[in-house]
Specification:
This protein is 41% helix and 17% strand. The chain is built from 15 helices and 14 strands. It has helices at residues 16-30, 61-71, 87-99, 111-119, 123-134, 145-153, 199-203, 220-226, 238-247, 262-269, 282-286, 298-305, 310-317, 322-336, 340-348, and strands at 2-6, 34-38, 45-48, 51-57, 78-82, 103-106, 139-142, 159-161, 186-190, 210-214, 231-234, 250-253, 274-276, 292-294. The strands form three sheets. Strands 2-1-5-6-7-8 form a six-stranded parallel β-sheet, with helices on both faces. Helix 8 (220-226) links the parallel strand 10 (210-214) and strand 11 (231-234). It starts with a strand and ends with a helix.
Length: 349
Amino acid sequence: MRIVTITDAWHPQVNGVVRTIDATNRELVKAGHTVAVIGPDQFAAFPCPGYAEIRLSLFPHGRLAQLLDAQLESERSVAFHVATEGPLGHAARRYCLARGLPFTTAYHTRFPQYLKAMFRVPERWTYGFLRRFHGRASFVMAPTRTVEDELRANGLDNVARWTRGVDLDVFHPRDERVLANLPRPLFLYVGRVSVEKNIQAFLRLDLPGTKVVAGVGPALETLKQRFPEVHFVGVLGFTELAQLYGSADVFVFPSLTDTFGLVMLEALACGTPVAAFPVQGPIDVVGGSGVAVLDDDLQKAALLAQRIDRAECRRYAERHSWRAATQQFLGLQQAIAKVPAERIASRRA
């Protein structure tokens, strides 16, 4: 079959949404399916205020309709997946609804909690928006049971599971070490360098050795000035990132509002234990696993995590492959896919 993903988050952005789409599409192609991604790189776009690396498509409806019409010419059955709630996501949703075409959506970002923490927007307002956006989809995909329950409790009854995985061929323990000149132990954070990731909770910790940050974001320059002792390495390619994960003694995940936390699995696949708060995301991904320490005292968690067996971290990660996660995604797409004759009828209606 042919699976078309429409997303407001795409290269050159580096985030969990982009990496999830990339990894899923690689597995789909391996299984003999064809994939296409329609992102903001194909439209006139402007930088998102406060997040210049995020490009928002400008009046995408007409061009997107042309691109989606072309996808429907495929002789294979076609399924549309709307990955994000931005301008392209809204345009794709409107396109599908106008033509009676089913589609799936995904819940990657806990916008109610982010917007409340950053701008004091009441959560009920944001959940109202999410109900309108995701409520007409055949399925809205959630990565964990906790997220599923949260969405159902806020009025969505079309929730289905699509978990996450890790590329075990890329992320694995390595003999070579990087940053060998820095005082040890190394405590590592990987992800967007922004306020909503609660990265300051990590940088403020009084830890021995060195704190290392990999990633970029709107708070980068401010945090470099506030925490000159922290080693910032920017964005790395997958091989370099895997080397960095494997060189760290502990991976610290300070976020309080993530739906999943893919980077935790990547660190574990490289043999590096995790320290995090006992909140949604860490509880779902590594809670009770023995390869992470979850504690409201993040400093205590980081120090205790050094004692965890690195081999056990790898073994735990091996249970979470992208192949298994992609089978969940594929099953939902197969449930809504339109064969050529049905698509022609929908377009004529």
